[in-house]
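Minutes, project check-in

Agenda point 3 was the complex the collaborators sent over. CS summarized: two entities, 372 residues total, and the question is how they sit relative to each other. Sequences were read into the notes so everyone works from the same version.
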Amino acid sequence: MKVTLGAKNCLYPTPSTLVGANIHGKPNYITVAHVGIMNQVYISLSIAKRRYTNAGILENQTFSVNIPSVGMVEKTDYCGLVSGKDIDKAKLFETFYGKLETAPMIKECPVNMECRLIQTIDFQERNIFIGEIVETYSDDECLTEDVVDLSKVQPILFVMINRSYWKLGQQFAKAWSIGKNVKSPD
Amino acid sequence: MKVTLGAKNCLYPTPSTLVGANIHGKPNYITVAHVGIMNQVYISLSIAKRRYTNAGILENQTFSVNIPSVGMVEKTDYCGLVSGKDIDKAKLFETFYGKLETAPMIKECPVNMECRLIQTIDFQERNIFIGEIVETYSDDECLTEDVVDLSKVQPILFVMINRSYWKLGQQFAKAWSIGKNVKSPD
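CS then shared the predicted structure for the full assembly.
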């Protein structure tokens, strides 16, 4: 039986990320799981305007999206609990820079996407930052046949509905493929 | 060791959805996994402009986002392989309507979000549709203490990197909580 719940967002899980930006020339990281995909090269981040990170992204027009592993869940959650105004969160990690030079990335995260800001949407209390991925870095041990393998990355999946983190389960089907088993209904 | 991969989008997994829209007064469904979250009530969908669904969303200013379970993977994949121009995909499912009256929803999907279109972003070859969730419907057996429980929903997670579908794994930590174990680095 269907029940109505009011307007409840159930579009989960999403991958938890640590977003890096330089602020006044120093690296800072914030936890962001309200992300989106526009296409294969463009992604979106939703960050409350009051957060410290926004000024850095707007100043440099660059940011990074770092994918932490399940073993980093405490630090990942922590970076969403405290502000870079008060705490130097970069001390928790080893930072490296890439070709854009102003987007700090976290070495301990198995995957890092270096992004150029291409558009900012003013959306109520939030900024939606749309970024173009310009380079992706991966730990070599997280690749299978030169492609990032999420079973090795072990991303931290976020579910807002009950404020929890989940692991990725098993791969069980191929996309653009298993649907061919369906007989046309016409 | 870090290796560079070029601009590779690794912001996965995302939940696979079946997006419903009326087109010329008839229900149609399309598979969409390039989704995003703006905040707790607003979500985004990225759909190629050439797809049949776009006209229906723009005509009615409404759409639905249906969350299929792993057992529906064949039909879910199929709805991304064929066009509503050619095939009456609504025949695959039982359709119901809610308060907006023009956003068809799939009864077999355990969770359905009924949305009002609030903004369309013209983004290269794609439309980014931003919707406000106005009502959420759930099968009662997918709730735990009146809240949607993703371990019961069993969503189909999409990973574009290797064109595959994955299951959700175990819940392993509480958000806005486990980070309190981290000692301040300052």
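Noted in discussion: Chain A has a mean pLDDT of 97.
Follow-up: revisit at the next meeting once the mutant set is ready.
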